[in-house]
Amino acid sequence: MSNESRSRQLRIPVRLVNGQWEFKLGGPVPVTEFSDAELVLHRSAIENKAFLNIMEEKARHKVLDEGTRLRVSLTVKPENPPPKEMKRLLIPYDKMCQQIGVGFMHNWSVVPPSFVQVKIAGPNEKQARLFDTEQGGLWLVTRGIEADGLASTMIVLPKEISAEPVGSLNHALTKLSEVYETWRISHTGNVYERVLYRERNGKWYPLDLLRNEKLEKQEQEIAKGIWEGFLAKMTRTTKELF
Question: Based on the domain organization, do 102 and 174 belong to the same domain?
């Protein structure tokens, strides 16, 4: 599918006629050669059940290992400062701004963000069964050829905030927001935008990059490698069906 904005995309009803897609009201679809598109079909229209299974299969692909450090962005307002013992845990914006990938801060608040470092820990019993592993990490969850989200094992917070690891990145963000963003009514947030990982080039990027195959730059080697490997595997698998 093209990465054009949705406002510039056009929905065209089509029908398969003698092995070719035609405009539903008649005639060929007048589009340029090699245009990308998506088919939205009822499941019953798929003749090859093995293909249908591939397109619906859920899978997990390890992205980051246990021990990897992540940084959570927080909007700490001057009129609502945290306690002194908590304030010293913050990594200020001026120490992070040159380390963040260019173009990945436009969605954040007008108040310069601060950051708290957390770490991926090992799994609890339930996670060990779910991921079938004794090692912690972060996994890209896919459904067919689409990203379905990210899942982690336990997350270690600074001991001043939590003596025990918490069960997820969402929980970690909530705990940190409760301490540093007391002005918020709700302490939930988008971990894909507000939690950053470190690429091999030394720059920090939001986790959303790891679940986005349409990378804006090719310098993100970890994210690029994940998607190249995953799509190559899917290509081999689907070719075996035909």
Answer: yes
